[in-house]
């Protein structure tokens, strides 16, 4: 299994499924890798699912894990119950900051 970043670019149009599909397809065609048999991995956003609705798609396991952990850990408020949870929450916050900066 391989993972490659072919290009990062700003999509100036509204981020609809159709616009995303066109942009992704153009990039993949430019590099000669647009093939119906490919499996595409994205987050679970509706526009991303719509963009590749008739192609093979998988939800990103890292994104799913982040969503699950964030949901589970957001309700931990009592400092007496946190223990080492505060360190985990701090690391999640740092990771989210990095992702937000890169986005």
What labels would you give this structure?
single chain, 103 residues, mainly alpha, 2 domains, two-stranded parallel ribbon, 8% strand, elongated
How would you describe what is shown here?
- The chain is mainly α and 103 residues long.
- It folds into two domains: 17-59, no CATH class; 62-102.
- It is built from five helices and two strands, in the order H-E-H-E-H-H-H.
- The model has no long low-confidence stretch (mean pLDDT 82).
The gist of it:
This protein is mainly α and 103 residues long.
Which helices and strands, and how do they pair?
Elements (H helix, E strand, L loop, with lengths): L16 H14 L8 E4 L3 H6 L4 E4 L1 H13 L5 H4 L2 H18 L1
Parallel strand pairs: 1-2
Give the number of domains.
Answer: 2
Fraction of residues in β-strands = 5-15%
Largest sheet, strands/sense/barrel:
2 strands, parallel
Quick one: overall form?
A: elongated
Number of strands: 2
Strand order of the largest sheet: 1-2
Whole-number mean pLDDT: 82
- Indicate the structural class: mainly alpha
Contiguous runs where pLDDT drops below 50 for at least 5 residues? none
The SSE string, one letter per element, is HEHEHHH
Work out the helix count.
Answer: 5
Whole-angstrom Rg = 18 Å
State the share of residues found in helices, binned by percent: 40-55%
Distance between the termini: 25 Å
């Amino acid at each position: 299994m391989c993972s490659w970043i072919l290009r990062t670019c700003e999509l100036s149009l509204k981020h609809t499924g159709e616009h995303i599909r066109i942009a992704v397809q153009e990039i993949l065609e430019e590099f000669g890798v647009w093939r119906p048999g490919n499996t595409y991995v994205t987050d679970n956003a509706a526009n991303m699912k719509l963009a590749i609705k008739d192609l093979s798609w998988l939800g990103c396991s890292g994104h799913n894990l982040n969503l699950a952990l964030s949901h589970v850990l957001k309700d931990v408020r009592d400092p007496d119950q946190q223990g080492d949870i505060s360190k985990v929450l701090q690391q999640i916050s740092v990771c989210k900051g990095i992702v937000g900066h890169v986005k």
